[in-house]
Design goal:
Layout lengths: L5 E3 L19 E3 L2 H30 L4 H16 L10
Antiparallel strand pairs: 1-2
Helix pairs in contact: 1-2
């Protein structure tokens, strides 16, 4: 499977802080569409299962929402994630 992946040349990533000990390289992989679909499906499952874990504290402690309001909002988000016309795009 790794041999079917092509890479695109990219620019070096920005150092995290001035005087960083090492430089990191950003790598973008181009995979066949069947692999992209499997990775996308896995990504949606991980997002669906971890949504509450990354949302509950910021929404309740910073934004002041109640836990019930967060759960209602996440129910709507999960519904949107299942829609075929909604395309989630973010870097992994």
């Amino acid at each position: 499977m790794a041999s079917s992946l092509a890479t695109r040349p990219t620019q070096p990533a920005q150092p995290a802080a001035r005087g960083a000990v090492f430089d990191a390289m950003e790598l973008t992989l181009c995979a066949p569409s069947n692999v992209q679909k499997r990775v996308g499906a896995l990504n949606i499952v991980q997002l669906h299962e971890g949504l509450e874990a990354v949302t509950i504290v910021p929404f309740t402690k910073i934004l002041g929402w109640s836990v019930e309001d967060v759960h209602a909002f996440l129910a709507e988000v999960r519904t949107d994630l299942k829609k075929k016309n909604v395309h989630l795009l973010h870097d992994l």
